[in-house]
Design a protein that fits this description.
single chain; globular; 2 domains; mainly beta; seven-stranded antiparallel sheet
Length: 334
């Protein structure tokens, strides 16, 4: 009869992976930190500025950093090892669609299609819009005061809240960079351009006599001097010069046993074609169909990322990803 001790709850079991993203300061390349020692990360109510992007499928990590060997002597004996150029990639499929999911999947500028002004210019990314309405004092991240203009924003409509574009160059978009402007002429000196690319969007859940009550708070709150415009759709474009960059946390929630987390301080949208057997020119599907019951199928967004380096403040090591394991109660240590 075996006398081996029991080893309970040492096998992490999960149904699906869940994805959370948070902004990186593009001016300083400072990520949003996930500290595994700071307390439980509530999956249904993540701490700001983390954004819950729902369940994902086909989550796969492709580490590509080579290990090189220093050799010496007539027989080329190995003396020491060192790591070559750091490289790792991540791929998965979003099962939910939204502005941020689309932006991450497309990888470049992602635009809000502002409600159009009839009879004006047309464009595949949205033509001349209805004029913006100033946001009034008393507004908050969850309620936008617009006075008598509430009739322009019926319940259920989407809105973009941000400042006018004022001919500046560099990153634009309050709170989260939505694009990079190198020359005001290239964006037609469009006063609405920041609201075209901003991530500061929300859905109107209720309309009062003077304000718009939102279903979720705006990610950047109410910027000083902001105006609001109605959004009728989201649009992205194949390729572009701007690269999305975010902090990411992927969680395998426990069904039994412990929780496993993969934290990437800096993920940049980019090719994930570094897996074995494929080259830099390999073809990838941008979208895929997940059959529900013929002929009905869900459309999934495929996303691929390249991890960018981060310097750990505890020892100065340059790293790309952190893998955390939270053991179940009374689980063995090893």
């Amino acid at each position: 009869m075996s006398t081996a001790p029991l080893r309970p709850a040492m096998v992490p079991c999960t149904r699906q992976m869940r994805a959370y993203f948070a902004p990186v300061s593009r001016q300083t390349e400072t990520p949003t930190i996930f500290d595994p020692g700071s307390g439980a990360f509530a999956l249904n109510a993540p701490p700001a500025p983390w954004v819950d992007l729902g369940w994902i499928e086909n989550f796969t990590r492709y580490p590509g950093t080579p290990t090189e060997v220093v050799r010496s002597g007539a027989k080329g004996l190995p003396l020491a090892q060192f790591r070559g150029p750091l490289e790792t990639h991540v791929e998965f499929d979003f099962r939910e669609w939204g502005k941020l999911q689309m932006a991450l999947a497309c990888g470049s500028e992602h635009m809000n299609v502002l409600a159009p002004m009839g009879g004006m210019s047309s464009s595949p990314s949205g033509g001349a819009p209805v004029a913006a309405i100033a946001v009034l004092p008393g507004s908050s991240a969850g309620e936008v005061v617009v006075g008598a203009a509430t009739s322009n924003f019926p319940a259920g409509s989407l809105i973009a809240v941000d400042v006018d574009y004022q001919q500046q160059t560099g990153y634009v978009g309050s709170g989260i960079a939505g694009a990079y402007v190198s020359d005001p002429v290239k964006v037609n000196r469009d006063a609405n351009y920041v609201r075209r690319v901003t991530f500061n969007v929300g859905c109107v859940a209720e309309v009062t006599s003077t304000s718009l009550v939102l279903s979720q708070p705006l990610l950047a709150g109410i910027p000083s001097g902001a105006a609001v415009q109605r959004v009728v759709a989201f649009v992205d474009r194949e390729d572009g010069s701007f690269f999305q960059e975010w902090s990411a946390l992927f969680v395998a929630e426990q069904e039994s046993g412990g929780r496993v987390c993969f934290y990437y301080p800096r993920l940049s949208s980019g090719s994930g074609d570094k897996k074995e057997g494929s080259g830099s020119g390999a073809k990838q599907a941008r979208e895929g169909l997940v059959e529900i019951a013929k002929p009905l199928a869900a459309v999934a967004l495929h996303a691929a990322f390249t991890a960018l380096p981060y310097t750990d403040p505890n020892d100065g090591q340059t790293v790309l990803c952190y893998r955390s394991y939270f053991p179940a109660n009374m689980a063995a240590a090893y």
